[in-house]
Design a protein that fits this description.
It is a single chain. Helices cover about 20% and strands about 25% of the residues. It is an alpha+beta fold. Helix 1 crosses helix 2. Strands 5, 6, 7, 8, 9, 10, 11, 12 and 13 form a 9-stranded mixed β-sheet that branches. The two termini are about 30 Å apart. The chain is elongated and about 70 Å long. The chain has 7 helices and 13 strands.
């Protein structure tokens, strides 16, 4: 791979910053000073040093974001701001993608990575990875709704959902609930409540698999996963 990509993927800086660093003569490949960003090196065979310190190549990146309202879960869009637009250059160059999607007006936990295998594990229906949401509902949520969700409800297109675990936090003209589902159909939480005659007015994802949202993250903020958190995801 190109030397600038190797250095950028190792956390040295953005591609632009790395190219400036190379021009200073601080980088060697197999003991030879290299200033050309286009030089190719093999992570399995070559030795890259920065200021006489070895630089280990990093292939994957794993991020947790507290997605804000108004931002779409996509890698690019001509009209709307995307979750990728919220990343700094040092993370963008890894070309991460959102793992699944949250609706434009939905907040909360969103994972981003360039690890396609992990994305598949978390999104594949056969793995039944649970996702938990908090929602405010226009209308009184009742025990009858809990029973209906436990059986699975029929959506507007005729699809019957898998069972959902509905917990009522507050029941009234505007109710508050938590819902855990193992699917990710289009607008699924909103459509499940529509199926029982109610409307979701606020939605936030709290967790995916065994990993919960870091509540210290403000809306629009993100951070890299710890090794322990990554292991939790891979155990699903």
């Amino acid at each position: 791979m190109r030397l600038d990509k190797w250095l950028a993927n190792s956390g040295i800086g953005s591609r632009k910053e790395v190219k400036k660093l190379l021009k200073t003569g601080a980088v060697t490949v197999n003991g030879k000073m290299t200033k050309d960003a286009k030089v190719h090196a093999d992570p399995n065979a070559d030795n890259v040093m920065l200021f006489d310190e070895p630089v280990e190549y990093r292939e994957f990146i794993y991020l947790m974001m507290n997605k804000p309202n108004g931002v779409i879960s996509a890698t690019e869009d001509k009209r709307d701001e995307t979750v990728i637009d919220l990343l700094d250059d040092a993370h963008k160059h890894f070309d991460p993608h959102p793992v699944g999607r949250l609706d434009k007006d939905t907040e909360g936990m969103l994972l981003l990575t360039n690890d396609g295998h992990l994305s598949y594990q978390l999104l594949s229906p056969k793995h039944h990875v649970p996702k938990t949401y908090f929602a405010r509902i226009h209308g009184q949520v009742t025990e009858a709704d809990i029973a209906a969700f436990k059986e699975g409800v029929t959506l507007d297109d005729g699809y019957k959902t898998k069972p959902g675990d509905l917990v009522i936090l507050l029941s009234g003209d505007e109710s508050e609930i938590e819902l855990t589902i193992t699917e990710g159909k289009f607008h699924q939480v909103k459509r499940m409540f529509q199926a029982v005659g109610k409307e979701v007015v606020y939605l936030k994802r709290l967790s995916m698999g065994a990993l919960g949202l870091d509540e210290e993250l403000e809306l629009g903020e993100y951070r890299e996963l710890t090794e322990e958190e990554l292991n939790l995801l891979k155990e699903n």
